[in-house]
Amino acid sequence: MQDRYIADEAKVNISSLEAETVMKSTPVSTVTSILGRIGIEYEEGLPKEAYIAAFKEEFCSEPKWVLLMLPKMMLDFLMEVWENPVVEMSEERWNYVEYLKIFGFLAYRMGNSISDEPNQILVVDEMKARFYFLLKSRKSQKVLSVYEEWEKIVTGYMYYYGFIETRTLYSLFLKVSKKVVSYEEFILFIKCRSSMWAFGAILKDFTGKNEYFQYLSVENADLLLTYIREHEELPYKPVKIEDLIYVSDAAGIDNRWSGVSELGNLFIDKMGLNYYRATVLLRTLLIMIKNGCSYDKLQERLSGLPFKNKELEEETRQAVGQLFESVPVFEYKGYSREEYKRLSHQKQLKKRKNLFTIIDGGRE
Questions:
Q1: Phi and psi dihedrals of 214, rounded to 5?
Q2: What is the spatial distance between Cα 315 and Cα 305, in angstroms, rounded to a whole number?
Q3: End-to-end CA distance of the chain
């Protein structure tokens, strides 16, 4: 049955199910979290149906929420479902179905491998009637493309920084995007996306005054914040918009960082790892480096690899060394170890220069 669930296609059927009926499978905590993020006040301890009704009423009455909360690629998939009797499926697309179910757009019925019954995606007719022409409009498509770029900029920054105060992130965002956007609009976008975004979360410090955005692969946010404050004089590394979008599209694996391509080739071509395992291992190494692990820890992580000879082991060791020096480190505010050493050296030279006083003088 699991094989049928992730089958490569699904039949689309129009359903008479009401949106609220579909939404009832969503945990109460998810619904109340979304309500809180979009600024809807609610009382604690109410029946689940009350929260779902409030969520549906607000979501359906204000067109901006569907554009703010759901990424373009997910809504493009929804349009494809609405317009076709059969759609191609993948594991990622089944995940889209699960997300869209939260909002009452779709449900599904799993197929049966014994009777050869196909998987079915059930379209909630009332939601299609309400949102189809809104999402089809040129204006909405333009807004979705803008938000898609915003999302890539923010995720790109977090692959470099890991943890940053939201107002600082906002200032950096304005510089590269060249958009006229209020802080309130920017933070609402992040709050709406992060509720459906398995990437980051907004946190407050113990005073409750300062907000931070944290990449979920940060291992110890409190310790990282301490390190960032220790480097208060160090500015965040400026990153070009094309580089932010590149690393975002590559899901954090930028093959322009020295050692990335070299290790990938070694894993696949010389060690015989399949693409999935090689990618997971490379991503793991990148996250370890960004979180400030030692070089020895990286070597330990690779100790179980199938080294066929000493030459291959040495090649791998050298590539790991390149990776260790070239990948952005969170505590260095997006600079790599190599870049941070260079900046520190320049700072020391500047200090030495300032030790000398030049006295103007000359012959009479």
A1: -120, 130
A2: 13
A3: 99
d(C-alpha 11, C-alpha 119), whole Å: 6
Average pLDDT, the chain: 89
The two structure tokens encoding residue 356: 């000398």
- What CA–CA distance (Å, rounded) separates 86 from 340? 53
The pLDDT, as a whole number, for residue 359 is: 46
Would residue 104 be called left, alpha or beta, if left means φ above 0 and alpha means ψ between -120 and 50 degrees? left
From CA 147, how far away is CA 40, in angstroms rounded?
A: 22
Q: Got the DSSP string for 33-68?
A: HHHHHTT----TT--HHHHHHHHHHHHHH-THHHHH
Looking at 162-274, list the stretches that DSSP marks H as alpha helix, in order from N- to C-terminal side. Answer: 166-177, 183-194, 221-230, 241-249, 260-265
- For 323-339, the pLDDT digits (tens) are 999 999 999 999 999 99
Cα–Cα distance for residue pair 70/89, rounded to 1 Å: 19
Q: What's at 175, amino acid-wise?
A: K
Q: How far apart are CA 325 and CA 339, in angstroms?
A: 8
Contact between 85 and 9 (Cβ < 8 Å) = no
Q: Degrees (nearest 5) of the Cα angle 134, 138, 139?
A: 75
Place of tokens 């950096």: 172
- Evaluate if residue 126 carries a pLDDT over 60: yes
Going by their DSSP bridges, the two strands 9-15 and 120-124 should be labelled as parallel
Q: Is 107 within 8 Å of 101 (Cβ atoms)?
A: yes
Structural contact between residues 287 and 215, judged by C-beta atoms closer than 8 angstroms: no
**pLDDT surpasses 80 at 363:** no
pTM of the model: 0.86
Other residues' Cβ atoms within 10 Å of the Cβ of residue 303: 7
CB within 8 Å of 212: residues ≥ 6 apart: 163, 164, 165, 166, 202, 203, 204, 205, 221, 225
pLDDT (tens digit per residue) in 59-95: 999 989 999 999 999 999 999 999 999 999 998 899 9
Sorted by sequence, the CB contacts under 8 Å of residue 17 that are 6+ apart come out as 107, 122, 124
Answer yes or no: are the C-beta atoms of 132 and 23 closer than 8 Å: no
Instruction: Report the distance separating Cα 29 and Cα 55, nearest Å.
Output: 12
Residue 159, H or E segment: helix 138-161
